[in-house]
Amino acid sequence: MQKKSNSSKNILVTGGAGFIGSHVIRRFVTKYPDYQIYNLDALTYAGNLENLKDVENEENYHFLQGNITDEDFINKIFKEYRFEGVIHLAAESHVDRSINDPLAFAKTNILGTMILLNAFKELWDKDWKGKRFYHISTDEVYGTLGKTGLFKETTSYDPNSPYSASKASSDHFVRAYGETYHLPYVITNCSNNYGANQFPEKLIPLFIHNIIHHKPLPVYGDGNYTRDWLYVIDHAIAIDLVYHKGTDKETYNIGGFNEWKNIDLVKLLCQHMDEKLGREKGSSEQLITYVKDRPGHDLRYAIDASKINKELDWSPTVTFEEGLSKTIDWYLKNEEWLNNVTSGAYQKYYAKQYQ
Ligand code: NAD
Ligand code: DAU
After folding, report:
1. Model confidence over 89-128: pLDDT tens digits?
2. Which of the following is catalytic: 84, 92, 139, 234?
3. Nearest CA to ligand 2 atom 4
4. Is 138 in the pocket of ligand 1 (CB under 6 A)?
5. Structural domain containing residue 252
6. Per residue in 252-304, pLDDT tens?
7. Is the CB of 256 under 6 A from ligand 1?
8. Would you say the CB of residue 28 lies under 6 angstroms from ligand 2?
9. Structural domain contains residue 129
10. What sequence ranges are listed for the domain NAD(P)-binding (predicted)?
């Protein structure tokens, strides 16, 4: 049911029922009572309104179920709510799924972004003052690093998976709308996030789930792939800063200054899990199973986040040890969330409530 909006500042957050989006929604709804926050989400397999239970009754939170590829629906809600700001997170986000179904990624990530850009342009192109389109993107657009070096904002795009190609393309469209129609935009490219509410298809929550249930831990290839991990709440803090203080037409890289080889991270996770579950030391590591590699697997991602650090005074607030421990505790405490997600029960529950 819709609550009445009485504020002049309507902000659209797309993909707010997903992992990162839910943390962004929580931060904006609780920190900015003068904003009306509209969460537009199609509730795909990755969207879960349980992620927002603690804020769903707030006066300034509104949920709109819909698909960003549905042009009529998007144009209608832009006319009705006249969003002054858009924080666009909705996307197909999992690399392995993009290998099996690349078209779905083109539709949502490229076409969906263009439909949002068009609606925003139609509404405001005679009055850009105070407006902003913020595209949340990924470091994967830069392709892969070798053993050394860091991704900078000036690094050339060189995507290797259908997922990263679709995100690179959507970044280009956002920039093109900025140049062609003067649409005020900002883009951030972030490294791997971890934390509460992440769908257990991604490395950390999948492995936590599998350890709990004594299932194999499928490490791709030799496990010597490197990712730069960032606690999701630190990403939400960065998004808040960039939305409010970032410079128009700029890109900011966001990362954790925290590189881990997959196999080292998995072993650390196993140690924590043994301790927290009171299992014999070394028992979780026995679940590690080396499996066939991901096709086109990028060797290494690592972010140079010095621009956002210098210009907006952002840096991660949570260490990896602390963040990983908090994350495991959250999944252990929220086993029902995890079981509902893996069984599919979370979707049936919300289908009954909202349709
Ligand atoms: P997620 O898969 O957890 O959530 C995506 C959300 O978008 C879901 O709620 C889903 O229902 C919604 N959605 C998907 N297709 C939609 C459509 N066509 N219309 C409306 N809603 C739709 O993703 P996430 O990990 O939270 O990532 C959010 C954004 O951040 C994505 O744009 C992703 O590319 C980017 N990103 C993610 C990471 C990461 O580590 N997870 C890092 C950098 C950037
Ligand atoms: O870098 C940012 C990106 O991080 C985001 O844009 C993506 O949306 C997000 O999914 C993530 O992409 P990755 O492919 O890096 O994340 P994933 O958790 O799928 O994999 C992390 C690493 O672990 C990667 O090297 C592949 C490996 N892996 C993953 C899974 C799911 C395994 O070895 N086994 C697994 O079962």
Report:
1. 999 999 999 999 999 999 999 999 999 999 999 999 999 9
2. 139
3. 192
4. yes
5. 10-197+228-258+300-318
6. 999 999 999 999 999 999 999 999 999 999 999 999 999 999 999 999 999 99
7. no
8. no
9. yes
10. 12-327
Distance 164 CA to ligand 2 centre (A): 12
Yes or no: say if 324 and 272 are a contact pair by the CB < 8 Å rule.
yes
Is residue 84 pLDDT above 90, yes or no? yes
pTM over the 0.85 mark: yes
Q: Which atom of ligand 1 is nearest to the CA of 41?
A: 21
pLDDT at position 180 is 98
Average pLDDT along the chain = 95
Q: What is the CATH number of the domain that holds 100?
A: 3.40.50.720
221 domain residue, yes or no? no
**CB-ligand 2 contact for 229 (6 Å cutoff):** no
Is there a domain that residue 145 lies in? yes
Q: Ligand 1: distance of its center to the CA of 237 in Å? A: 17
Residue 232 lies in a domain: yes
Provide the domain count of the chain.
1
* pLDDT greater than 60 at residue 352: no
CA dist., res. 333 & res. 241, Å (int): 30
Q: 49 in helix, strand or coil?
A: helix
Active site residue 163: yes
CB 228 within 8 A of CB 301: yes
With 0-12 / 13-18 / 19 or more C-beta atoms within 10 angstroms meaning exposed / middle / buried, residue 255 is buried
